[in-house]
Amino acid sequence: MLFPRKLVSLSIAIALSLGSAAILADEYDELDELEDDLADFYGDEDFISLATGSKKLIHKAPSVATVITAEEIVNTGAMDLDDVLEMVPGLHVSKLPNVYLSIYTFRGIYSSFNPQVLMLINGIPVTNVFTGNRSQLWGGMPVHAIERVEVIRGPGSAIYGADAFSGVINVITKTSENIEKNTVGFRAGSYDTTDFWFSHGGKLGNVATSLIVEVHKTDGHDEIIQSDAQTILDAVFGTNASLAPGSVNNKRDNLDLRLDLAFEKWKLRGGLQSRELGAGVGIAEALDPTSVQSSNRWNIDLTYKNDELAKDWNIEALLSHLNTTQEIDNNLIIFPPGADIGFGAPFPDGVIGNPEVFEKHSRLNFTTSYKGLDSHELRIGIGHNYSDLYKVKESKNFAFGPNGEFLVPGSPVVDVSDTPFVFLTEGDRKNNYFFVQDIWAFANDWELTAGIRYDDYSDFGSTTNPRLALVWSSSLNLTTKFLYGKAFRAPSFAETRNINNPVALGNPNLSPERIETFELVMDYHPQTGFSSGVSFFYHEWNEIIQFVPDTGATSNTAQNIGEQTGYGVEIEFEWEATEHFKLKGNYSIQRSTDELTKQDIAFVPQQQLFLQADWQLEKSWHMNTKFNWVMDRERAQIDTRSAIDDYQIVDVTIRWQAPESNLSLALIARNLFDEDAREPTANSGPIANIPFDLPLAGSNFFAEISYVF
């Protein structure tokens, strides 16, 4: 493992070697040759707008960025956004036991709700205020509506505000410009999985339209859990209620609809994402084969963009609304029938609790850019965000009923909504913000981006977050970046408003989490068809919100108490070896430390290796192979289980395009060699609820057919 002094030495050595190679390779002095070479090096997919709000080449952008296009998504056989994100350097997609919720871990920054990552759909946050993430019932995102995915590793609060903390993911969906004809597709395979999609693009008079429908149904993988939380309770209370050994419940029934209408400078987008999810291992890590949780999310966004508002001025105005729910379709079984949880007797129908939340989010934002100053591009933004957790519902058969009565085992399920005994209080949050950014090209080869954003919140006060990025075009082949930024993560309502929970209580006096990050980045393109990059980073994460045991009680209350530091290196390359063969990959190594305990951070990979090969076999055949190696994950200090095993997963996709036809067929193999891959589970006491960790899917196979007309 690298230590800071070795890391600095390595960065200097790489910088010198790349610089020397660049000097030897830099024989392009004429401007016309420069333009020709840029056209050879870069296509449209190599531009990104996420870093500054304006379109820039990735290697020139003041950030560490990755772009994955629709073409690459198709070639790799990706079926969900998680499949796409696993290709990003320094990003690990982990899972939680409850509904197998995806956790996106950037650079060793991990938490169970994952609110430190900002997810955007077409530049608009989809953050839920309850847990601060994409929703506890996110349920994945299909890929056929995706035109490109832009990812920034590192802080982005100077532009995007709250939760652009460890990384920002922007999913850009297709419009009529990207959909030349109608497409219909069908996929079927392992675990009784069926997928259907349809896309349409065209014009209604002067209005450009697109419509995309995606349906996903699956029983989900059924890996076996040998022992669960109820197994422990059975040993304590002498019961026999556990359903372990038993399979996880990963059923999913998803519907995605997306509509896009564009007229001159106006764009109207609408979407619906409906999710019905099995409980995974269970909400309390006790097997629950019958419960179904659901989420219904719909959004509507209206954008006005005028690039010719006045000389050197442009403007963009956005009005958006998002409604999102987390609901229980049938009783959520926390512990199975016959369970005893210390209330004096077993619960004949099981321990049942049905927490539900309903939210709405409205945003009004104005952004303008001015290019009238010599060598400067000024960008200014102002906006208002309103988040309202307007309804909380709960029914249960344990603890206290609506009138304060104690619910003994065998009591019926009662509704405690709108009583003092509900699990969460309703409330809203208002956020007003202002930001300014200047991109200053103060020399031919130097560009300085400086930005600052001020946010004022109605519930926890204000915060100011700056960033600086110095980009040096060392030569045609080499770009060097020096990056600095601060970011914040807003406390979630689960952390500030949780009540009547014997385990976790909220604290209305929380401050936001804060992070400060330093980065050194080098992008090197020695020749046409080959690109590479190395990124060094160091961060300090403070005011981490953790649930701390209360004195003389069994509860834990949220407090700003944690501190973490981390550093690492990310190396990536892309090589077009021949016209028909491409190879790309990345390797990342990081070390993150809990500054209170001086222990390595648990759960996160300290090393990752990803490789991908694309072959164009003959004219009609295409083959893609991916290799993902996850290494060196630590357990928590109190966890005495054996070390977490590394895993290596190989995926293969073979696609056939019928000659002179719009018919396409594909075979997709996931985890081809049936690797026993597992994600670590928590150990909050002397015994882990799931002692053998959380199993991922074994070998699974799919066949796909699509037709363009």
Brief summary:
By secondary structure, the chain is mainly beta. It has a 22-stranded antiparallel beta barrel. Strand 35 and strand 36 form a beta hairpin.
Key terms for this structure?
709 residues, mainly beta, Maltoporin, Chain A, 22-stranded antiparallel β-barrel, five-stranded mixed sheet, 52% strand
Secondary structure elements and pairings:
Elements: H1 4-25, H2 31-41, E1 47-48, E2 56-57, E3 64-69, H3 70-76, H4 81-85, E4 91-95, E5 102-106, E6 117-121, E7 124-125, E8 146-153, H5 157-160, E9 167-173, E10 183-189, E11 193-204, E12 207-218, E13 224-225, H6 229-237, E14 246-247, E15 252-263, E16 266-278, E17 292-310, E18 313-328, E19 333-335, E20 351-370, E21 376-396, E22 414-415, E23 427-443, E24 446-457, E25 461-472, E26 478-489, H7 493-496, E27 504-505, E28 513-527, E29 530-549, E30 556-578, E31 581-594, E32 599-600, E33 605-617, E34 621-633, E35 647-657, E36 663-670, E37 678-679, E38 694-695, E39 700-708
Pfam families: Plug (PF07715), TonB_dep_Rec_b-barrel (PF00593)
InterPro entries: Beta-barrel_TonB, Beta-barrel_TonB_sf, Plug_dom, Plug_dom_sf, TonB-dep_rcpt-like
Keywords: Cell outer membrane, Membrane, Receptor, Signal, TonB box, Transmembrane, Transmembrane beta strand, Transport
